[in-house]
Design goal:
Blueprint: H1 2-10, E1 21-22, E2 36-39, E3 45-48, E4 51-52, E5 54-55, E6 59-63, E7 66-69, E8 86-90, E9 93-97, E10 111-115, E11 119-122, E12 138-142, E13 145-152, E14 162-170, E15 176-179, E16 194-198, E17 212-216, E18 230-235, E19 243-247, E20 267-270, E21 273-277, E22 280-282, E23 285-286, E24 289-294, H2 308-316, H3 323-332, H4 334-339, H5 344-351, E25 366-372, E26 382-383, E27 386-392, E28 396-402, E29 405-407, E30 414-417, E31 421-425
Antiparallel strand pairs: 1-31, 2-3, 3-6, 4-5, 6-7, 8-9, 9-10, 10-11, 12-13, 13-14, 14-15, 16-17, 17-18, 18-19, 20-21, 21-24, 22-23, 24-25, 26-29, 27-28, 28-31, 29-30
Length: 430
């Protein structure tokens, strides 16, 4: 546990040699874009639908280094083919909501669950309450259920109306409940954004309790009106310990670069942080970059405005100053120190015998550019690709990347849907 603490809190960046690896599974889905994709219990990932010219309705499971077509599992109905829906891990399987079935169609508000034994089951007509119809929304598993945020109530491809509501699908009751979250305790309404959830830094990533989520990007009025803001979702002291959002702020006056705003992409939890690659940064213009976000570089999850003096007092009562022993002690005690108002920069300054000035104690997280398309097997200029966290018997822990559509940066040419499977190791994440 101490090692996990030290790695998570010190915020080790992706290694200089980190890069994507192209995999060669024995079978694979056809190329597609904007499909539903999520990690599931046991370390695998589930893929449903998407667009490949036509709307697809097949279901694929990634497990132990290969794709498995599980479309025929069970005897019940399957969701109609769709794109721009969302799904997240739920119990032993997933829950899926929304999306649209054709470019000319309105968005859906149907709810489906998938189980690894029985396949798909529709719950739409059993639910007395459900979110309004939408697409381009995001869903992720948190402690107690699946959290849904945002989307667009598009009536057709040319008319998007951004939504900013929050819903929870209960793990125990399998029902939807709308959450009382609105700005500034929630991001502004948007669609085409992405969200990933992971455990707090001091917890084992396989131990459950996923209550820390990162959200980035999206658009509001049009494809060119996109966001470049980052939000973190967690229990907030300012909200009486209830779940809420806080906007990520730089920790220093001269912050490092951050990603360009984008939409039509997916991020995934990786290590103690988040991984992002590609996405649309303008009309038929895609990014070719990979970024990691470390939400624990300057953790203020349980704090308000901590001060150097209060943190120094807390450290003195726990750790003798000076050297590596002090740093190791601070890492081991960090969960309690955070509650008393510390950020890691406070602990570093104390252990090194320096003063701690100019630290933003409300700062949350830091982006770091990990790789460009010019190196390794980078996905390149892709929008609408899918990513999910996996734990694979042959690959280990990391992020699986599949699909997307290429947009040339020098022309208005739309490439074919990608069907390459790629992997990014968790060891190259925060």
């Amino acid at each position: 546990m101490t090692r996990l603490l030290a790695l998570g809190i010190l915020g080790l960046a992706a290694t200089a040699h980190a890069q994507w690896t192209v995999l060669a599974p024995k079978s694979a889905p056809i190329g597609r874009t904007v499909a539903c994709f999520t990690n599931i219990k046991g370390g695998g990932a589930l893929l449903f639908g998407g667009s490949a010219g036509a709307m697809l309705s097949d279901t694929w499971l990634w497990q132990d280094g290969d794709w498995h077509n599980v479309s025929g599992l069970g005897k019940g109905a399957t969701p109609p083919g769709r794109a721009l829906g969302a799904m997240a891990a739920h119990k032993d399987g997933v829950v899926l909501f929304g999306g649209y079935e054709s470019v000319a169609a309105s968005s859906n508000n149907d709810t489906w669950v998938w189980d690894p034994t029985t396949g798909w089951t529709e719950l739409t007509h059993q639910l007395s309450v459900a979110p309004p119809a939408r697409s381009y929304h995001t869903m992720a598993a948190i402690e107690g259920g699946v959290y849904l945020f945002g989307g667009t109530a598009r009536t057709d491809e040319a008319h998007d109306t951004a939504i900013g509501d929050s819903w929870l699908f209960s793990d125990t009751e399998s029902t939807w409940t709308q959450l009382d979250l609105a700005p500034p305790q929630a991001p502004p309404a948007r669609w085409g954004h992405s969200m990933a959830c992971s455990p707090p830094a001091w917890l084992d990533p396989d131990a459950g309790g996923e209550t820390s989520c990162t959200l980035f990007g999206g658009a509001a009025l049009s494809e060119d009106d996109h966001f470049d803001d980052t939000w973190v979702f967690h229990p907030m002291q300012a909200n009486d310990g209830k779940l809420g959002w806080q906007k990520s702020q730089p920790a220093v006056a001269d912050p490092p670069p951050k990603p360009a705003g984008r939409w039509s992409f997916q991020i995934a939890s990786c290590g103690a942080g988040t991984l992002m690659a590609g996405g649309s940064i303008g009309y038929r213009i895609c990014a070719d970059d990979t970024w990691t976000f470390n939400a624990t570089v300057f953790p203020s999850v349980w704090t308000s405005n901590g001060t150097s003096a209060s943190c120094e007092s807390a450290l003195k009562s726990s750790c003798p100053p000076g050297g590596k022993a002090c740093t190791a002690c601070a890492a081991a005690e960090y969960k309690d120190l955070v509650r008393l108002g510390c950020v890691w920069a406070d602990a570093t300054a104390y252990c090194e015998g320096k003063t701690n000035k100019g630290i933003n104690h409300d700062a949350i997280g830091e982006w770091k550019r990990a790789q460009d398309a010019a190196t390794g097997a980078h996905p390149g200029y892709l929008g609408g690709a899918m990513m999910a966290r996996v734990t694979d018997s042959s690959l280990g822990k990391g992020v699986l990347h599949f699909g997307g559509t290429s947009f040339s940066p020098t022309s208005n040419h739309i490439g074919p849907a990608d069907n390459v499977t790629r992997f990014w190791p968790a060891s190259s994440c925060p």
